[in-house]
Design the sequence.
């Protein structure tokens, strides 16, 4: 059998037909100079009106056919590496567009948290008046300052909405302007404490109301208004500034 393919994509027996019988039945114009394709020797003849052709790209890909013989293979040309493959667009006009090459752009996984805004940068003079070393950080894990970190120093660190506080939660109007809580790092004992502030509003440590001095541990949560802050110590059982300054 001489298997041929017409200009409309139909397969037919060239020994039996001089032009495509499918096109004739559908009222289409076939071609007598159709392309000859190969049939594997171990094929099993059959009678199917539609099916798939394995195209041999290594991934089991198939293409739809409408022919009168089964298991016909169709040679294809694989695109060169790095080339563009034409695909149908979604404009509804049947146009063709090209898939752009990967541009190697990196997308931050926390973009939805920060709304693609850059992390806040400290002002040039933010630490200009620093008179004691860094003892640790409070990292905001809930509220409108989420993702920001606030530096804690040796001694008393007030937390409130006013810029006069050591930790200024200026964007959260549910936090008092006056100190609502105080975080203390005591260097001799190498310990952190939470102390109630002078404001009328309450603060909470790990869900418990802060009414008296409470010792803090790593990852403890201090909550004020709509803001949640997690303690991340710099000074702990493995490091403290006493060993540095004693040298």
Sequence:
């Amino acid at each position: 059998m001489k298997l041929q393919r017409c200009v409309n994509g139909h397969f037919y027996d060239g020994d039996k037909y001089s032009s495509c019988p499918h096109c004739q039945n559908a009222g289409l114009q076939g071609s007598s100079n159709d392309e000859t394709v190969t049939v594997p020797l171990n094929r099993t003849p059959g009678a199917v009106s539609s099916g798939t052709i394995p195209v041999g790209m290594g991934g089991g890909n198939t293409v739809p056919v409408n022919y009168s013989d089964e298991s016909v293979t169709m040679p294809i040309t694989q695109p060169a590496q790095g080339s563009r493959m034409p695909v149908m667009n979604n404009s509804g006009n049947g146009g063709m567009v090209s898939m752009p090459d990967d541009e190697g752009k990196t997308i931050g996984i926390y973009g939805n948290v920060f709304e693609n805004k850059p992390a806040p940068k400290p002002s040039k003079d933010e630490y200009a008046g620093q008179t004691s070393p860094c003892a640790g950080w409070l990292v905001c894990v809930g509220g409108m300052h989420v993702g920001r970190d606030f530096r804690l120093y040796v001694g008393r660190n007030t937390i409130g909405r006013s810029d006069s506080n050591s930790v200024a939660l200026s964007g959260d109007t549910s936090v008092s302007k006056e100190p609502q809580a105080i975080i203390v790092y005591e260097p001799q004992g190498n310990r952190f404490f939470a102390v109630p502030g002078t404001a009328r509003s309450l603060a909470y440590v790990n869900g418990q109301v802060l009414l008296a001095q409470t010792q803090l541990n790593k990852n403890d949560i201090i909550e004020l208004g709509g803001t949640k802050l997690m303690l991340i110590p710099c000074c702990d059982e493995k490091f403290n500034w006493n060993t540095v300054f004693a040298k």
